Structure formats: C-alpha cells, structure tokens
Amino acid sequence: MISRTALVATMVATLFYLSSAIAYTKQDVPNGGALSGKISFNGKVPDSMKISIEKNPEVCGTGVREIKEVTVDGNGGLESAVVFFKKVSAGKPWNVPNGGWQLNQKTCTFLPWVQVIEDKSELEVVNHDPVLHNIHTYELIPAGKRVVRVTMFNEAQPTQGFTFKKKVRMRRGNTIKVECDAHNFMHAYMLALKNPYYAITSADGTYSIDKIPAGKYSVIVWHSKLGVISKKIEIGSGGKATLNHEYK
C-alpha cells in the first residue's frame, strides 16, 4: 500500500512537471468545443482525518472535526476533484467571482474546501469569526521522494471582519495547502493555474468545460488525496468530447 506521504510526494512532483510558463492571452473563441465527463471512485473510501476541537468551542463547535477528503455519492461520483488543461495559450477570459478571488473563514472552517484561482492574481482572505485565526499557506514543492512545504504567506487575523489581500505567485508547482496555526483542524486546498480551462467536480462527480479552442491537449485530473493523472484528448471545432476517470 502506498503511504500518504509517498502519494502526496508523487502528486506534487507530477504537478511540478505539469506546470507551464506559457503566458495566457484572452481572445474570442468562435465555435469553441466542450469537454465533459465524470470522475469517480471505486473501492473502500479512505478514512477521514479526525482532530479534536480543543479551542474556541463557542465558535468552532465541540467534539471532533472530521476532515473528509474523499467524498463519494451512491453512484461512485467523486466530489471536489479538479479537471484542468495543462497548456492553453489563448482563449476565453477567467470567470473571476464578483469582488475577486476570496478565501473565507466561517465557524472555524475554510470556505471553499477546494478552489482554483488564477496564478499571479490577488487573493482576499476574510475572517468572519469573532476569534483569532492565523492563516498559513504553503506551496508544495517536490524534493525527490519528499514534499517540501514552503510558506507563501502567514498572517494573523485577530478580529471578526479582519481582511487582507495577497498576490499569489507560484514558483514551482500548482498546489497550495491552507492551514490555520490557531486551529489545527482547519484545512483547505487551492490550485493556482495559468489558464481558465478547468472545472471542479460536483457532488455527483460530473463536470464540464466550454469554449475550448480546437486542438490536442493534455488534461489533468487532480484530487487532494487520490493523486494526479494525465490524459490526452482532441477537441474539434465546435465539437464535444468526453473524459471520464475512475480512481481506485
């Protein structure tokens, strides 16, 4: 059985290999194609990480916080996997949320659990809780069989409503691990990508990506615990392609 450390090392090393320095150009995509599919899981769902809540129970709750990385529905659909294109030089604009990219802390939980942001964009971090949070983000960098966690930013947010903004710059990969130094049960992930051709799977494991320029591509499937795979696809002008993957 592969250890969690080895799996994470493999995942991060793969993402390092897949990262691209190509500048992305926004332009119209007449008669763009589409990609859709389902990411699923077959087998015994890995145990969740369980951490005792020992601080600020009046806000964070009591008992044990369950960190459930692998969420599967009754038909095997895998939630919160990310499907993205390795390299696209030009195409549709980023769909930036109203107010920009944001990471929230509510009831001692990072929201969302997994999100994608544009590399070299500005991220706003908001503390909605009436307690101290200290957000600590790490770029995960492969070093042989190990994973080196390099701090990106480490900021205290002492009061409710405390907000700050930081520019996200990836140096050697795609994956960002998010933790709170004040509450060891708070965890999340971000992927910082160079183009907007991505989707996060819904609760039933399905996804779709549109307005894709015709061409041949490598498409990556990422999951925080189950790892990374790469598949080749071809999109015709105005065509529709399907890509499914089953983790085991």
Task: Describe the structure concisely for a colleague.
By secondary structure, the chain is mainly beta.
Give keywords.
single chain, 248 residues, mainly beta, Immunoglobulin-like, five-stranded mixed beta sheet, four-stranded mixed beta sheet, 2 helices, 8% helix, 48% strand
Helix-strand string: HEEEHEEEEEEEEEEEEEEEEEE
Task: Based on the coordinates given, report the CATH architecture.
Answer: Sandwich
Characterize the main sheet: 5 strands, mixed
Per the principal axes of the C-alpha atoms, what is the gross shape?
globular
Rg of Cα set: 18 Å
Number of helices: 2
Q: Which structural class do the helices and strands define?
A: mainly beta
Name of the CATH superfamily: Cupredoxins -  blue copper proteins
Low-confidence stretches: 5-10, 12-20
Mean pLDDT equals: 92
* Spatial strand arrangement across the major sheet: 9-15-14-11-12
Please give the number of β-strands. Answer: 21
Can you give the helix content as a percent range? under 10%
Query: Approximately how much beta-strand content do the residues carry?
Result: over 45%
Name of the top-level CATH class: Mainly Beta
Distance between the termini: 12 Å
Number of separate domains: 1
**What fold name stands as the CATH topology?**
Immunoglobulin-like
